[in-house]
Design a protein that fits this description.
The protein is of the alpha+beta class. The protein is built from seven helices and 17 strands. Among the domains are: about 60 residues, Structural Genomics Hypothetical 15.5 Kd Protein In mrcA-pckA Intergenic Region, Chain A (Roll); about 80 residues, Pseudouridine synthase (2-Layer Sandwich). Strand 5 and strand 6 form a beta hairpin.
Length: about 325
């Protein structure tokens, strides 16, 4: 599901223009390199899915990147037709770039967000579809005992925008704790609590019911420090017994997507995320995706991979 974070798109925006953007690839309004004219080399490599911009800069510093047979340097610009080599990998700069791929994954508890684990625990990357060029980049992480929404993309530039602290992208969680918050607790977590790595606060915290000792809450925050939700509740004297991410920015966990399965976004949905990500850098660059049915993952589109159709069972949503 793709939702609006700031409001609806004006009705007068021509649909033909949006379709044209989708057909020719990532448009300039997104701020992502489209292949039209000179582009910074580290952004081209990140957009090709070879890693983050920072990782590409490190490879350039290490002398592991060549352009047309010559060692690349930081800040170097490349043009359509240039051939970039990173080790055994080759990237040819094109006149137009296709839309990056974006998938959403419903992570179950008991999986790690890493390619390698000394303990041999299951990895989320084992469940993802194979990719011929580049690699899947995780947008943020969830710890071993946390479930819910994970976003993966082939665009290092898009991943960087969604994760960079300066853009303060919202994360929404369903949290079950042992105990019940009182009024002073609500005020405390919204005002801010001190953790070992600095102050942290919830933008929003709402009670969502419960029974016995267990109570559910909906919380929203604008950062992704390690285990921050659990640590915030620990700081005020409550233990989290279950934690599930249900939204990251304008992307929500699709209703009906079962645990351990993924769904790839359609081109118009990916284009909507790119438009929205442009607003993080320049609020005047574009309009956000429109809310409502037009912006949602339709039930029949992009069927979840690795999942047999089962209309009687739907992914649980904490309330």
């Amino acid at each position: 599901m793709i939702r609006s974070a700031t409001g609806p798109t004006p009705a007068h925006k021509p649909r033909q223009a949006r379709v044209a953007r989708e057909r020719r690839g990532v448009q300039s309004a997104t701020g992502l390199d489209t292949g039209h004219g000179p582009q910074r080399i580290h952004k081209v490599l990140a957009a090709a899915g070879l890693g983050s911009r920072r990782e590409m800069e490190e490879l350039i510093r290490a002398g592991k990147v060549k352009v047309n047979g010559t060692l690349a340097h930081l800040g170097m610009r490349v043009q359509p037709g240039d051939v970039i080599r990173v080790g055994k990998r080759q990237v040819t700069v094109r006149d137009s770039a296709p839309l990056p791929r974006v998938i959403v994954y419903h992570k179950p508890e008991g999986e790690i967000v890493s390619h390698d684990d000394p303990q041999g625990r299951p990895s989320v990357f084992e469940k993802l579809p194979p990719i011929r060029r580049g690699k899947w980049l995780a947008v943020g992480r969830l710890d071993y005992n946390t479930s819910g929404l994970l976003i993966f993309t082939t665009s290092g530039e898009l991943a960087n925008r969604l994760m960079h602290p300066r853009y303060e992208v919202e994360r929404e969680y369903a949290v079950r704790i042992i105990g019940k918050l009182r009024d002073e607790h609500f005020k405390q977590v919204k005002r801010g609590v001190r953790l070992e790595d600095g102050m942290a606060r919830f933008e929003l915290v709402e009670e969502r019911g419960g029974r016995g000792l267990n109570h559910w809450y909906r919380v929203v925050l604008r950062e992704g420090r390690n285990r921050i939700v659990r640590r915030m509740f620990d700081a005020i004297g409550f233990r989290v017994s279950r934690l599930m991410r249900v939204r990251f920015g304008v992307v929500s966990l699709p209703f009906g997507l079962r645990r351990g399965t993924w769904r790839e976004l359609e081109e118009n949905q990916t284009a909507g995320i790119l438009d929205w990500s442009a607003m993080l850098v320049d609020p005047a660059a574009s309009q956000p995706p429109a809310p409502g049915r037009a912006g949602r993952l339709s039930p029949g589109a992009g069927r979840a991979r690795g999942e047999r159709p089962d209309r009687s069972r739907r992914a649980s949503r904490a309330k």
